[in-house]
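Mods, move this if it's the wrong board.
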Amino acid sequence: MKRTIILYGLALAALVFLLKYLEYQLIVRNRSIEFYVGIVALFFTALGIWAGLKLTKKKIIILGPEFILNETELQRLGISKREHEVLELMAQGLSNQEIADTLFVSLNTIKTHSSNLFLKLEVRRRTQAIQKAKKLRLIP
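Not the wrong board. Structure tokens:
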């Protein structure tokens, strides 16, 4: 019984060695470097397409109930129409210079409107102003 197992083991080992040798001869040795570079390029192209599709996948945003402006709070705080526009643009993430360019006014005018908004909303920073304005339903 031992002898049979050893013979089968040696036969399988010889067969595996022969298959690996033939694989080396047919695949590795007979192919040029351009073949392997092409395979690697195809792999990375497929990987790039897959990653691009994953990163640029459209996200579905479920919106809550429609935004209704709280006009009474707007009047109570004394926020002007222009200050409200500045607040909306702040909420969109625009810088003071970008807001000034959008509204066709000077940078100092935007800084004045921002200061007035901070005083009226009783906050110190833009992020706090946006957060409080959303809480009071002044901006969506």
